[in-house]
């Protein structure tokens, strides 16, 4: 099943949205059976575990807590291993390690099951979690994700680290995240420059926080080798796949491949780029409609 979303006027997040302070429910460090995780829990209702993208850091931004999800669910999210204030374990990491970390967080919270929503890198983790512990996932949401293997991988953003010029690296990242950015550079240079400046500031804040400069490349290395394509038919959990029509990081074809491979999946397409999940209210409203009502 394919659902069509409404068109957006703006395809990137505003400065206000990216710097919102979450003072009422401050993050806290907890010790799970796997490692120490920096977590935040907010909202009321059934438990929902949110797995963020490759640069998810609760101290920088966590748009999930500004969304309508907290009005319907008790939402928990954590800095992934190696990022923010979470621990940086020794040795090599696998996507299964991230999934096990997520399960250890659920255990620490006393959640036997939860709705699981993954965004970008977090969608890859969510797939592994659903494969590793299907009985722990009530329903599954995958936004801007890819399976790897024959289903296609997400763009190898670890290659961007080889671009020494910070501004050029950000411009290339924006082009990858939204196919419309090239046109924006020509048609509205002022708006494009504002987005570049915003991303430069956010990137600086992220790389200068805690040990992100060390943990981020290790996370990207794990991401680069991810492949769960052949195992996707084993995920019998009802799944909503959310995709952006203009996403060039996890192109729409990746979402369509997931739909074909997963037996209980639906696909919702919106006129957004890679930041589809929180760019407008429509994707979250679609989730709530399917999961609550």
Overview of the structural elements:
With 293 residues, the protein is an alpha/beta fold. It has one domain: Alpha/Beta hydrolase fold, catalytic domain (Rossmann fold), CATH 3.40.50. It is 36% helix and 18% strand. A nine-stranded mixed sheet has the order 1-9-8-7-6-4-5-3-2, sandwiched between helices. Helix 4 packs across helix 6. The two termini are 18 Å apart. The N terminus is likely disordered.
Name the CATH superfamily classification: Alpha/Beta hydrolase fold, catalytic domain
Which stretches of 5+ consecutive residues score pLDDT under 50?
1-24
* Name of the CATH first level: Alpha Beta
Strand-residue proportion: 15-25%
Helix % is: 25-40%
Domains (count): 1
The side-by-side strand order for the widest beta sheet comes to 1-9-8-7-6-4-5-3-2
Total of DSSP H or I helical runs spanning 4+ residues:
10
Strand runs, count: 9
CATH topology: Rossmann fold
The chain-level structural class is alpha/beta
Query: Do you know the CATH architecture?
Result: 3-Layer(aba) Sandwich
Give a short synopsis of this structure.
By secondary structure, the protein is of the alpha/beta class.
Topology:
Elements lengths: L1 E6 L7 H4 L9 E4 L4 E8 L3 E5 L22 E5 L16 H15 L4 E6 L1 H12 L4 E7 L22 H12 L3 H7 L1 H19 L4 H13 L14 E6 L7 H10 L3 E7 L4 H4 L2 H10 L2
Parallel strand pairs: 1-9, 4-5, 4-6, 6-7, 7-8, 8-9
Antiparallel strand pairs: 2-3, 3-5
Helix pairs in contact: 2-3, 4-6, 5-6
């Amino acid at each position: 099943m394919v659902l069509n979303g409404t068109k957006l006027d703006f395809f990137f997040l505003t400065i206000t949205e990216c710097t919102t302070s979450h003072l009422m429910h401050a993050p806290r460090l907890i010790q799970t059976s796997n490692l120490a995780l920096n977590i935040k829990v907010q909202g009321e209702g059934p438990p929902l575990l949110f797995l963020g993208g490759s640069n998810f850091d609760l101290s920088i931004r966590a748009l999930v807590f500004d969304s309508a999800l907290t009005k319907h669910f008790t939402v928990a999210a954590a800095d992934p291993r190696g990022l923010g204030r979470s621990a940086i374990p020794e040795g090599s990491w696998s996507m299964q390690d991230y999934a096990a970390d997520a399960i250890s967080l659920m255990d620490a919270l006393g959640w036997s099951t939860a709705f699981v929503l993954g965004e970008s890198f977090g969608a890859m983790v969510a797939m592994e979690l659903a494969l590793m512990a299907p009985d722990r996932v009530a329903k599954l949401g995958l936004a801007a994700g890819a399976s790897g293997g024959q289903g296609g991988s997400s763009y190898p953003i670890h290659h961007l680290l080889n671009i020494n010029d910070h501004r050029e690296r950000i411009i290339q990242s924006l082009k990858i995240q939204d196919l419309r950015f090239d046109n924006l550079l020509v048609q509205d240079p002022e708006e494009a420059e504002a987005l570049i400046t915003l991303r430069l500031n956010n990137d600086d804040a992220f790389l200068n926080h805690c040990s992100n400069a060390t943990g981020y490349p290790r996370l990207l290395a794990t991401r680069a080798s991810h492949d769960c394509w052949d195992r996707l038919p084993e995920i019998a959990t009802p799944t909503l796949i959310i995709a952006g029509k203009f996403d060039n990081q996890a192109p729409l074809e990746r979402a369509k491949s997931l739909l074909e491979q997963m037996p209980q999946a639906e696909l919702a397409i919106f006129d957004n780029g890679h930041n589809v999940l929180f760019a407008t209210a429509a994707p979250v409203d679609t989730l709530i409609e399917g999961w609550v009502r």
